[in-house]
């Protein structure tokens, strides 16, 4: 069986280890769909809702954005059509550009946070983002929130996300 078929079967089954094995065996991360458009593996992973496979494909060079992300075959559109909000969030965190007016299933705060993560991690477009102009943000990792007023922290995070727009 060819490595391409093995990759597609592994993606459809949601088996991350098998996806990695197929890619390591030489399967191309960008396969053409039936119409000659690249991105079949990413499209399948997005539609099926496998965020971990989406991340793996992106790390291996699969495109997150196409010329127009509102096209029905774009990774973002595939995730939206499949009603996979976790994959939509993952794509935004990986730098997917959200077309104006596209309904994603995420609320405004979830979109802002995902876009902020893309900027923080360097996945946002370079010409839109100058690291020197970004505010420095201290990240706080907590193992427990018992007795902690998190409303202040949440308000500060939301204010910062709105200012970064």
From TrEMBL:
GO molecular function: ubiquitin-protein transferase activity
InterPro entries, alphabetized: Ankyrin_rpt, Ankyrin_rpt-contain_sf
ANK repeat extents: 71-98
Protein name (Swiss-Prot/TrEMBL): Uncharacterized protein
Pfam families tied to this protein: Ank_2 (PF12796)
SUPFAM superfamilies in the cross-refs: Ankyrin repeat (SSF48403)
Keywords carried by this UniProt record: ANK repeat, Repeat
Signal peptide: none
PROSITE patterns, sorted: ANK_REP_REGION, ANK_REPEAT
GO BP annotations, alphabetical order: protein K6-linked ubiquitination
Organism expressing this protein natively: Azonexus hydrophilus
